[in-house]
Amino acid sequence: MCFVYYGYMKKNILLIDDDLEFCEEMTDILSSEGYKTKVANDGKTGARLATGQTGQKYDVIVLDFKMPGLGGVDVLRALSRSKRRPKIILASGRPSLEQLLKDEKLEGMVDFIANKPFDPEVLVAKINTLCA
Questions:
Q1: Helices and strands per DSSP (H, E), number in the chain
Q2: Are 63 and 51 in contact (CB under 8 A)?
Q3: Span between the terminal Cα atoms of the chain, in Å
Q4: Pairing of strands 9-10, 3-4
Q5: How far apart are CA 104 and CA 45, in angstroms?
Q6: What is the domain partition of the chain in residue ranges?
Q7: Which residues pair with residue 113 across a beta bridge?
Q8: What dotted CATH number matches 10-131?
Q9: pLDDT, tens only, 34-56
Q10: Angstrom distance (rounded) from CA 97 to CA 48
Q11: Is 79 in contact with 109 (CB distance < 8 Å)?
């Protein structure tokens, strides 16, 4: 589990994904691991939350690459202009995202690329590692 022991503070995770089932499943799993989870089911809301416009700070963001409206790259661009720098896991079924991120000058923004479909337990293990 990923806790800050001084004050026993839960780590905050933001899921930005238009797949409602995925978000529900991950929220249940992450809650059982001791994380506080917030969900945004579209890129516009996700960008607003991720950049701290609501006052909440997130330790890790799990970001879907392809969503209607603002996609993952758009959210990354918004974060690149923000003072906040959470750990970011980019989830996608698209191969070779590394080159796209490099072309968009966003390669340093992503800490891990999770290729879909993936095992939620593997994703939780990566979140635990990023929170350590």
A1: 5, 7
A2: no
A3: 9
A4: antiparallel
A5: 22
A6: 10-131
A7: 90
A8: 3.40.50.2300
A9: 999 999 999 999 999 999 878 88
A10: 24
A11: yes
